[in-house]
Amino acid sequence: MQWSTARLAGIGLVLLVAFGCAPLPQRTSVSVEQRPSASFNERRPNYVILHHTSSDTVERALRTLTDRLREVSAHYVVARDGTIYHLVDELARAWHAGESYWGGQRDLNSASIGIELDNDGEEPFAEIQLVALVALLADLKTRYAIPAKNFLGHGDVAPRRKADPGRNFPWKRLAERGFGLWCDPPYSEAPAGVDDHLLLQAFGYDVSDAGAAVAAFKRRFAPGDVSDAMSDDNRALLYCLVLRQRQTR
User: Fold this and answer.
1) Predicted confidence (pLDDT) per residue in 111-120, tens digit
2) N or C: which end of the chain has fewer CB within 10 A?
């Protein structure tokens, strides 16, 4: 049987896609190194979810995130040295958030871009890595009009299971550049009698496990506070964030 050149090319493309080897569309203007992953399906993003890899080297993280049998992936990995690796097309559904919830939205994989930061979860984030991350976030925000309030951590959307990107992540620095929300003291007092769980839910957290929601909130916004209870200052901070969220696009 003789097949046309066009048909052979089509079969070749199918095989490349099937085995995760096809070149990825270069949508970002930021310099990246492609490492295509086969673990995805298609959707459009309205959130960015930040993670840390928990690995000691970026190559180890990349092997995990591109291994078909592991069934886990992210759109980008930002290495400690500032290299940005592109694994999954931005318009495809990477498998990074798992079971997740934020503000009534379930299955954040279907609505988000996942970015893994090359970090073991305990070390400080490298300056060159943060500079590269900010450049990537700025590019994504511009192209997809992602609201500042929709830049989240894995620990925000899966508080019972995850804690990344961890207490060392500089959320305030990112918020000052339009990626996430932040409030600085002094805070106005929350209304008398306001319910902590209602405020957490209003901000976006899943409060089915109230302790996990409180821990996730503190890990991001009050990382030095490791107590289990919400203080008056915590409550005032959370109330400020809820109000800011309603004012921010």
Assistant:
1) 999 999 999 9
2) N
